[in-house]
Amino acid sequence: MFEDSSELDCFEAERPRLRALAYRMLGSAAEADDAVQEAWLRYDRTDLAPVRNQAAWLTKVVTRVCLNLLRARQTRREESLESFTSDWLGAADDDRVPQEEAELADSIGLALLVVLDRLSPAERVAFVLHDMFDVGFGDIAHMMERNPAAVRQLASRARAKVRGGAGTKTADASRRHQAVEAYLTATRTGDFEALLTLLDPQVELRADPEVTGAAGPLTLQGALVVAKSALAAGLRARHTVPALVDGGPALVMAPLGRLSLVILFTFTGSTITAIDITAAPSRLRAFDITLD
């Protein structure tokens, strides 16, 4: 244990930065707190006399703890995704998403958290450290026990996934993006008339059983019925963001940055003719999702 308060003061001064770093790597406030607490325990037990830069040492410890947590999460993703989806959908209806988690997610951007969650653990760590915290590739390589060239490649690959690549949108594609964004806005604000202007009179909505919890898929038809259904999901819409899914405009619901639901749209021109909603883990994992 510490004999004076100088090292404790040093750790407390670094705590906000370490927590921010861990949250961006993990996407969970609880796990970020656990990672920082583990760093504290190691800090408390270590002879720091040979350590020239305690801030860098703590960054290294938190990074390695987060990397291990991400790798462990990856091995149990299917089980945790199914459990998380059903649990959170119930929480969303009761407006019980933890306030602190929601504020942290909003500070970063839900869409970015969604994409970060699609990266491999090594890609996520390299991207967060370099692009968000301006840590040099040499230092990251030391933390991750890789060579700088490999870390640079990891960050570059992650950056490409986050940005979704470049491309020129046609006017029709642009109108479809605008329609999806208008659909989300109308759902959030309860604008029934605006929804009707976006939907084809014979629009069909299809939702898989994981969305509704029913024994089979749900199908709704007609603009009036589909618009009413969209408004009934107003609470969930607050945690939904636009994205590109398999290259097309879509909406993704990602409480705390963990993908739980995807809404796909079919168009005739810029009019929505079909909506497909899925929460099936096997389908969610297969989607190519990038920031819109």
Automatic annotation (TrEMBL):
<comment type="similarity">
    <text>Belongs to the sigma-70 factor family. ECF subfamily.</text>
</comment>
<dbReference type="InterPro" id="IPR013249">
    <property type="entry name" value="RNA_pol_sigma70_r4_t2"/>
</dbReference>
<protein>
    <submittedName>
        <fullName>RNA polymerase sigma-70 factor (ECF subfamily)</fullName>
    </submittedName>
</protein>
<dbReference type="Pfam" id="PF04542">
    <property type="entry name" value="Sigma70_r2"/>
</dbReference>
<dbReference type="InterPro" id="IPR032710">
    <property type="entry name" value="NTF2-like_dom_sf"/>
</dbReference>
<dbReference type="InterPro" id="IPR052704">
    <property type="entry name" value="ECF_Sigma-70_Domain"/>
</dbReference>
<dbReference type="GO" id="GO:0003677">
    <property type="term" value="F:DNA binding"/>
</dbReference>
<keyword id="KW-0731">Sigma factor</keyword>
<dbReference type="InterPro" id="IPR036388">
    <property type="entry name" value="WH-like_DNA-bd_sf"/>
</dbReference>
<dbReference type="Pfam" id="PF08281">
    <property type="entry name" value="Sigma70_r4_2"/>
</dbReference>
<feature type="domain" description="RNA polymerase sigma factor 70 region 4 type 2">
    <location>
        <begin position="111"/>
        <end position="161"/>
    </location>
</feature>
<keyword id="KW-0805">Transcription regulation</keyword>
<dbReference type="GO" id="GO:0016987">
    <property type="term" value="F:sigma factor activity"/>
</dbReference>
<keyword id="KW-0804">Transcription</keyword>
<feature type="domain" description="RNA polymerase sigma-70 region 2">
    <location>
        <begin position="11"/>
        <end position="74"/>
    </location>
</feature>
<comment type="subunit">
    <text>Interacts transiently with the RNA polymerase catalytic core formed by RpoA, RpoB, RpoC and RpoZ (2 alpha, 1 beta, 1 beta' and 1 omega subunit) to form the RNA polymerase holoenzyme that can initiate transcription.</text>
</comment>
<dbReference type="InterPro" id="IPR014284">
    <property type="entry name" value="RNA_pol_sigma-70_dom"/>
</dbReference>
<dbReference type="InterPro" id="IPR013324">
    <property type="entry name" value="RNA_pol_sigma_r3/r4-like"/>
</dbReference>
<dbReference type="GO" id="GO:0006352">
    <property type="term" value="P:DNA-templated transcription initiation"/>
</dbReference>
<dbReference type="InterPro" id="IPR013325">
    <property type="entry name" value="RNA_pol_sigma_r2"/>
</dbReference>
<dbReference type="InterPro" id="IPR007627">
    <property type="entry name" value="RNA_pol_sigma70_r2"/>
</dbReference>
